[in-house]
């Protein structure tokens, strides 16, 4: 990425997802008005990917309770997502939308396409209700992500969004002290 995606507005897209036993259309408009996670992974029927998607499924109820919708995305089709969902106990527990991006439009929009392979890097993006990217994390293919750390980052992003003038320090957890940046804090932390 030559330019930071942070605070940029998500680009238009239209895709089909496998969600709760049906094929549904999803556009960038579906992400507006609530917090969203767009969670890219390389491919269905692989090794690290199901561990990540299963971990996200285990945290999905908590995320929904925080007003967050999750969308997983790979360059596979929605048909492949359905087949994987039907054949894997880990993937079968997923109830969030699994978007197919065979054209790579969404994957390129977020800057995570591996062009020579036609696959996505492991990219995680947290988007606020206005459609702005607030968290962007991109991993190499062999490095799995943690949904519990993602939950903490979303909690911090939501806190900062609703508490003007406050920021969350490293390892901040809900209920802990935040900081109010000022000249008086310079060199004191």
UniProtKB/TrEMBL annotation:
Chief subcellular location: cytoplasm
Compartments, as annotated in UniProt: Cytoplasm
Keywords: Antioxidant, Cytoplasm, Disulfide bond, Oxidoreductase, Peroxidase, Redox-active center
Top enzyme category: oxidoreductase
InterPro entries according to UniProt: AhpC, AhpC/TSA, Peroxiredoxin, Peroxiredoxin_AhpC-typ, Peroxiredoxin_C, Thioredoxin-like_sf, Thioredoxin_domain
Record-level Gene Ontology MF annotations: NADH-dependent peroxiredoxin activity
Alphabetized SUPFAM superfamilies for the sequence: Thioredoxin-like
Record flagged with keyword rRNA-binding: no
Catalytic activity reported: a hydroperoxide + NADH + H(+) = an alcohol + NAD(+) + H2O
Domain Thioredoxin as annotated: residue spans: 4-159
Highest taxon of the lineage: Bacteria
EC number: 1.11.1.26
Pfam families: 1-cysPrx_C, AhpC-TSA
Family membership noted in the UniProt record: Belongs to the peroxiredoxin family. AhpC/Prx1 subfamily.
Subunit structure: Homodimer; disulfide-linked, upon oxidation. 5 homodimers assemble to form a ring-like decamer.
Function description: Thiol-specific peroxidase that catalyzes the reduction of hydrogen peroxide and organic hydroperoxides to water and alcohols, respectively. Plays a role in cell protection against oxidative stress by detoxifying peroxides.
Protein name: Alkyl hydroperoxide reductase C
Native organism taxonomy: Bacteria, Pseudomonadati, Pseudomonadota, Gammaproteobacteria, Alteromonadales
């Amino acid at each position: 990425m030559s330019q930071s995606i942070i605070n940029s507005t998500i680009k238009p897209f239209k895709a089909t997802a496998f969600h709760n036993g049906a094929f549904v259309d999803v556009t960038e408009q579906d992400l507006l008005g609530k917090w969203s996670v767009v969670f890219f992974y390389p491919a269905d029927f692989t090794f690290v990917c199901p561990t990540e998607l299963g971990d996200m499924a285990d945290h999905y109820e908590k995320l929904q309770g925080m007003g967050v919708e999750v969308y997983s995305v790979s360059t596979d089709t929605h048909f492949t997502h359905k087949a994987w969902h039907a054949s894997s106990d880990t993937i079968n527990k997923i109830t969030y939308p699994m978007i197919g991006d065979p054209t790579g439009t969404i994957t390129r929009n977020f800057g995570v396409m591996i062009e020579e392979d036609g696959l996505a890097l492991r990219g995680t993006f947290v988007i606020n209700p206005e459609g702005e990217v607030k968290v962007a994390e991109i991993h190499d293919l062999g490095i799995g992500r943690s949904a519990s750390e993602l939950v903490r980052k979303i909690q911090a992003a939501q806190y900062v969004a609703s508490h003007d003038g406050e920021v969350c320090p490293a390892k901040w957890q809900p209920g802990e002290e935040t900081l109010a940046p000022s000249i008086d804090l310079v060199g004191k932390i």
